[in-house]
Structures are given as structure tokens and as C-alpha cells.
Amino acid sequence: MRTIILSLIFISLTLQSWAFSATEVQQVYERLIAAIGDQSRAFPEPQIQAEPGSVLSYHRIKSVIYIDQLALDICSEFGDKKDDALAFLLAHELTHFYQEHRWETAGFGSRFVVKKDIYNRYELDEKEADLFGAFTTHLADFQSIEIIPKLFDKVYERYQLANKLEDYPSLAERKSVAREVCQKTKELILIFESANYFHAVGEHLAAASMYEYLLSFVRYKELYNNIGVSLVAAAAQMMSPANLRFRYPLELDWDIPLRDGKAADPKVLLQKGIGYLSKATQLDRTHYRAFLNLSAAYTFSDQSEAAQKMLIQLQSLSLTNYQQTQVQLIQAIILAKKGATARAQSVLASIGNQKTNPALQQIAIHNLAVLKKESIAPRKRSAFYSNDEQIDGLDLMYQNELDFQDITLQHPFHQAAELIQIHPNAQSDLVHFVTNDKTIALLFTNRKLSKTKANVGVGSTLSTIQQQYQNGKILAHSRGSYLLFPQQKLFFDLDASERVRAWGIYEVY
After folding, report:
1. Rounded distance, CA 414 to CA 8, Å?
2. Residues whose CB is less than 8 angstroms from the CB of residue 201 and which lie 6 or more positions away in sequence, other chains included
3. What is the pLDDT of residues 211-269, one digit of tens each?
4. Which of 40, 77, 206, 343 could disulfide-pair with 433, CB 3.0 to 4.6 Å?
5. What sign has the CA pseudo-torsion 34, 35, 37, 43?
6. pTM of the shown model
């Protein structure tokens, strides 16, 4: 008996050590709102209530999300994963608010735990809340997906719902939906990451199509931003060399000519890209990257007054030195287009001498060479390179015998059906983007066990990569940068500390 009592005391003390403070709840909530990124709306306030109710509930009239203290206790039982558990519960209810689900339950917008008849009536809303919520947790950098089924176990146990199945959906039913949603969320995350990598290696229309596909499930400012950037970059690839003199600090995430550019009008793509970027700025008037990208798009399309307005908006924000340099790059191009060549050269020369920002330094040196009318070798697609790198026992030489999950989509930017093919592996992911005239293949990994033939992998530093590979192109994105080696058809995804987060290889057939 004494052992049991001591064990219970130990468990109680452990749970107390993981208990949530109101500040911690607010911090999790604010990360989720930042991930959604829509500042055009006033989000409800979270409020903790002592008495057990419906786990969480969104009160539409009061604009409050109520959180049971018991729900926080349940999340605390996940220890160092407690934030991940709470993030999913909060994101679920945020979805009901954000997607404007109009439930008619005593003035409430929705409840996490509802009676069976209400659940059945709003089952599609519940599935959307699970899906949108799970994807939101990923964007906010929580690791919620793997613990969602276990979270339902604990909720049903602690709220004693197993004894009330005549009134509530069964645990098996909710977990079945949760597993289905988790699987779909993993698929969407894979497509999102693949789209980023397609963009990085220069396949911008493929990236734009994949982002557009994601918009049918989840809507975030980053998707509008990324579609806009991809379309502007695709338009730039298709323009004549005279129109493509300068390089722009477009920030996602760009530079090998597309072979299917003939299928789309670059001017139309440019205007569509501007439309998507404008949407992103409307969602968040402080969204630095969207304003930067929009100013670059306006500059590229010779709309200098509109570009200047975007730069004024940017200057009203609190900018880092890196961001100030990006703005200066665009200002230099505007000066050059207005004929103020000497002033533009002075700005670019100053940036070109900065060794702290190699990605921006590359752009400045290129643009300075353009202004000085120095010879710049034309960009050419690399000759076919037999890439014999392997990840998880796979390479990109032959995959016809593999089983793929096929996702068909209609290209939103030209009239052609396309296909996304997914083949997850134990240590990597293989993704194909198939059009009527080519297949683009990506094989990538974020696992530490996988290394390139030069022994570079997850955790390796930028300097280590540069010692092994030459002539890399650095492309900035919101959480770090991509380092691309077109000759080897090899890319690295670097975090903000310039360490490899993921790496992969690509091929176009």
C-alpha cells in the first residue's frame, strides 16, 4: 500500500511540474494565430474555466474559446509533448472560428465534445477542424500529429465518455476520423514541403500548382505568398533575356528554365502572381515577405509607383539588417530603371562587399555586372548528369516498379491535367510531378542516418557543404536558405543557423 501511495504522490508531483500556466497557454495560442497569419480578423480570446465542460468550446457571441482546466491537466500528462497536445485542441476550435462554422448550440460556435446527434449533423465541420487544426500545428512548428489518437484516448477516459455512448460518438469513431485526418495531414505536409523544393530547384509552375491544390484544404497567408512568388518567378523565366537582366530578392524560396513555359503567358502569370501576393498582404499588413515580394513583382513589371508604395509599407516595419538589405536591392533596381545608374551602382557595390549575407551578395554582384554592362554567361540547363546519389536505398535512375499514391489535379494556370505521385519510405520521400511532356522527380530526407557520397547530411554546416561542392547558389526562404547545386542536381535545406535540416536530389525526365 505504501508503494502505491508513494507512486501516486510521484505521479501527482510530476503532473504538477508539467502543469500549464495561463501565460504558457497564451503563448501556444499566439503561435497558432501567427501560423494562420490572418490579421484582418479579430481572433477570440482564450479563457480557462475551472469546471469541466466540453474540453474546449468556442463562444461566437462572446468571442471566447473556453478551455477546461481538466483539458489542460490531460495535456500536461503528455510531459514534454504537452504543448503539442494543447496546440491541437486549440487549433481545432480556432478552425471553427476561422472557417465560420455556424453551429446552433446555445449560442456557442462549437464544442470539442458534443452529443452524437450534433456531431453527426456537423461531421464535415469536425473533420475540417481536425484537418485544418493539425496542419496549423505543423505550420506553427508543433509536433502534434503523432499524438492525436492518444489524445482522444485520454479525453474519453478522463471525461468518462465511454460510459455515455448512447449520447456521444464512440471513441473508435473519433479515433478513426483522427487517424484518417492525420494521414491526410501528413500527405498535405509532404506536398507543401515538396512544393517548396520544386520552387527551389526552379520548377515554379509545378510548385504553384501544388500550392493551389493545398488551398482547397487549408488557407493561409503563406500559401498565397508562395503561389505569388512561384508565378512571378515562372514569369521571369519565360521573359526574353532583355527583360530578365536583374535578379530580385524574392523570398520564398528559384533558377532553372522551365521546359513547359510555352503553355502559359508570362504576362498573365505575372499578374496572377501579383494578385496572390496582394491577397497575402491584405491578410496581414505586417507580413514582411509578402510586401517584399509584391514590391519586387511590381518593380519587375515596371510599376514603379506601386513598388514604391510597398517599400514605404516595408519601411514602416521594424526591419533587421538583412531585411533592410533586401529593400535596398529593390530600390537599386528602381533607381537603375529610372536612369540613376551611378546611385544604383553605389548601393549594389556596397551590398556586394558584404560577406555576412551571401545570398544577397550574389544578387548584388550579378546586378552590378548588369549595370556595368559586363559579360554575363547565359543561364543554361545543365547537360544530363547521371545522379548516382542514393537515399534510403533509392536513386532517381529508375522508379517504374515502385507503388505510388496518385493525386490528379487540374493545372490552374494552363489547360492541362497533372499528377502528383507520392512514395513515402522509411528514411525519405519520393515525389513525382507529372505533366503531359515531362516528369520532375524529387527524392529528399530529413533523417540523420542518410548522407551524400561526400558524407554531408542533416546537421552538416554550410562551410562543410562548400568544402565538398562548388558553385552553389544560395536562395533565401523564411526559415533559412536553400543551397542548390544544379550540376549535381543536389539541394540542401538550411535552417537559420546554417545547418542542414533536409537534403535531396532531383531529376527531370
Report:
1. 64
2. 256, 442, 484, 489, 491, 506
3. 988 988 877 778 888 999 999 888 887 765 555 578 887 654 322 222 333 456 788 88
4. 206
5. negative
6. 0.80
